[in-house]
Each structure stands twice: as structure tokens, then as C-alpha cells.
């Protein structure tokens, strides 16, 4: 196979919240002449900065970041939308002769890229309204049982209290006459034909817990309450999707006087710990990830990730930074 015949390549840096993914992604982008594509379901929204820990422009070192601040906070944005936008960014980065580096922890977004996701029929307010009303009266578990009769595979993937995803699965069925599972079977992965070097960082659990706690304290210290007030003053509705995230929904309660800061802080920490566990469970199901059992900022993590990329991509041109040909990952 000639160099021109090689599959296009990209790197994915995945892992739970507060594991140092952003730091590792930046280090790899510097090392391999790359650009970052965020894989975060809240970072896509403009104005939601502190609670998503977006890397400030002055800390990006001139490395372009894509799929950040691309959506109005009041807009509907799905995993299928993300797969389209991220794939466009990845293809453009590759066309510039640089290495696309996906960085984030939203498992559904990564799966939409790696395996494909059915975009489905558009929103049907009448059908959705009836399903939402049923969930309000009888609980989302009742809808989950209905989904189990119609589409057992989807019911197995979706938690019984995940009202949003249950309603969407039923909405697709009632609109199209086909289950979500059947549609998925016909879906082509956007990254089909690409070489994807998947790296997952996983510090020891005790370190993750400590890092989450410190991160939440830093978010309050940086002024996340003022950020939320500014968003509301701009006219972002409290029901906007990014306000449903683990951080922002609790800070919104503080701003509205529904919860005190201390209890909000503790609840955010607890919910993020639960979320980190779910992320780990999700990514363990992803095939072909190379797990690194340290935080992303550590030198050994960068060296090990560099060795993985060199091994998978060499002698492809993308395996070496800026046209150079180092033989060791110690060139960080």
C-alpha cells in the first residue's frame, strides 16, 4: 500500500470528567501538529464556559479548537447534529495536512462518530407532547415498559428514568413505523474507512474524586454564578438544554434562590462522581481503546500516548510533527 492509499487518520482522547483529557489533547496537538475537535455535549453551546471548563483562548497555545461555541443555547442540538459538524471539522483538518484530535467525555457523541447514529424524523410536537404528558402522569418507567414491548434492544440501552431518550425512541417509532434499533442497523458510521487511534485516560478513582471536588470549587471561584446570571439576562431561557447539565442546573437553583451555595456545591460534586462512573462504564464498552491509568497532565501519560500514536500511525506522514521524523515519543 502506498502512502497515498493509506486511510486518513485521527486520534481520540476520551475519559471521565476531570481526568486531564484537555491537557493531554493539547500536548498531543503540539507534538503531532494537530487541531482539537471537542466532544462535549455542553461545550457546543455559546456562553456556557466555566461549567464546561472550556480551555481559554490564551491557554490554547494557538492550537485551533473546533465544535466549541457553535450553537445558540436555546437551540435543539442532537448527537446526529454533532456527528455532522465534527465530521466536517475532522475532514477539513485532515485536508490541511494536520492531525485531527478528538477530545472529550460525551460517549454518545463519540459513538455517533465512530459507529453512526440515526438522525431520525424531525421533532413532532404533537406526539412528543402526548408522551411527555404520559410520563408526567405515570412516570418515565411506564414509557420505558412500553418501549420494552416495541423495541427491547433500545429499552436495554436506555435507563428507565431517562425520559428524554425514551420519548425520542418512541417518537421515532410512532412517526416512522420502524424502531430506533432497526434504523441504527441501517446507519453508516461517519468515520468508516478512517484509522482512529483511541486513547482513554483513567486516573485512580480516589484521584478522580479529589479532582472533581477541586474543579467544582474552582468553578465557583471563577464566577459561575455570575456567568449564569449573565446568560439569563441575555434572554437564555431557564429551560434551555445546557441548563440541564450537572453543573448548570444546580447553579441555576442557587441564582434563583432555590438552593444555597454549599448544598449546590456538594450536590454537583456527588452528581459528577456518579457521572464519571457512568462515563467509565460507557467507554469500557468501546472497542480498541488503549487505557492509560494516569491523569492526562502527567509526563508519563503524554509519553505513553505518544508511543501509541507513533506505533499506530508510523510511517504515515501524520505520525510526525511538522514534517520532522523523530523516532521516540520523548520529543514532547
What keywords describe this structure?
332 residues, alpha/beta, Rossmann fold, Histone, subunit A, globular
Compact description:
This protein has 13 helices and six strands. The chain is α/β, with parallel strands linked by helices and 332 residues long.
Explain this structure to me?
With 332 residues, this protein is α/β, with parallel strands linked by helices. The protein folds into two domains: 9-117 and 188-331, Rossmann fold (3-Layer(aba) Sandwich); 125-185, Histone, subunit A (Orthogonal Bundle). Helix content is 49%, strand content 9%. The protein has helices spanning 21-32, 79-95, 107-114, 125-138, 140-150, 152-157, 163-176, 180-185, 205-221, 224-233, 248-255, 261-284, 299-313, and strands spanning 9-14, 34-39, 65-66, 99-104, 195-201, 289-292. The chain has a six-stranded parallel sheet, with helices on both faces. The longest helix is centred in the C-terminal third of the chain and has 24 residues, at 261-284. The two termini are 30 Å apart. Residues 316-332 have low confidence and may be disordered.
Amino acid at each position: 500500500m502506498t502512502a497515498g492509499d493509506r486511510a486518513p487518520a485521527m486520534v481520540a482522547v476520551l475519559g471521565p470528567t476531570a481526568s486531564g483529557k484537555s491537557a493531554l489533547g493539547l500536548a498531543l496537538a503540539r507534538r503531532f501538529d494537530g487541531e482539537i475537535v471537542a466532544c462535549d455535549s455542553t461545550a457546543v453551546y455559546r456562553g456556557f464556559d466555566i461549567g464546561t471548563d472550556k480551555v481559554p483562548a490564551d491557554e490554547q497555545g494557538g492550537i485551533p479548537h473546533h465544535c466549541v461555541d457553535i450553537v445558540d443555547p436555546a437551540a435543539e442540538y442532537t448527537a446526529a447534529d454533532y456527528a455532522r459538524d465534527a465530521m466536517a471539522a475532522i475532514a477539513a483538518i485532515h485536508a490541511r495536512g494536520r492531525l485531527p484530535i478528538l477530545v472529550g467525555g460525551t460517549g454518545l457523541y463519540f459513538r455517533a462518530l465512530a459507529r453512526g447514529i440515526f438522525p431520525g424524523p424531525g421533532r413532532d410536537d404533537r406526539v412528543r407532547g402526548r408522551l411527555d404528558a404520559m410520563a408526567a402522569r405515570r412516570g418515565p418507567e411506564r414509557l420505558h415498559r412500553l418501549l420494552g414491548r416495541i423495541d427491547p434492544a433500545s429499552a436495554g440501552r436506555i435507563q428507565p428514568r431517562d425520559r428524554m431518550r425514551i420519548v425520542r425512541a418512541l417518537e421515532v417509532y410512532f412517526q416512522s413505523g420502524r424502531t430506533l434499533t432497526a434504523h441504527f442497523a441501517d446507519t453508516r458510521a461517519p468515520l468508516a474507512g478512517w484509522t482512529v487511534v483511541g486513547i482513554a485516560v483513567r486516573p485512580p478513582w480516589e484521584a478522580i474524586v479529589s479532582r472533581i471536588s477541586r474543579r467544582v470549587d474552582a468553578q465557583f471561584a471563577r464566577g459561575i454564578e455570575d456567568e449564569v446570571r449573565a446568560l439569563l439576562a441575555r434572554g437564555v431561557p431557564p429551560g434551555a438544554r445546557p441548563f440541564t447539565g450537572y453543573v448548570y442546573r444546580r447553579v441555576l437553583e442557587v441564582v434563583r434562590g432555590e438552593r444555597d451555595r454549599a448544598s449546590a456545591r456538594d450536590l454537583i460534586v456527588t452528581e459528577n462522581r456518579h457521572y464519571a462512573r457512568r462515563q467509565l462504564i460507557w467507554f469500557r464498552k468501546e472497542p480498541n481503546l488503549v487505557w492509560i491509568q494516569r491523569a492526562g497532565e502527567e509526563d508519563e501519560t503524554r509519553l505513553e500516548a505518544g508511543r501509541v500514536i507513533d506505533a499506530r500511525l508510523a510511517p504515515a506522514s501524520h505520525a510526525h510533527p511538522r514534517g520532522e521524523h523523530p523516532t521516540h515519543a520523548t520529543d514532547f
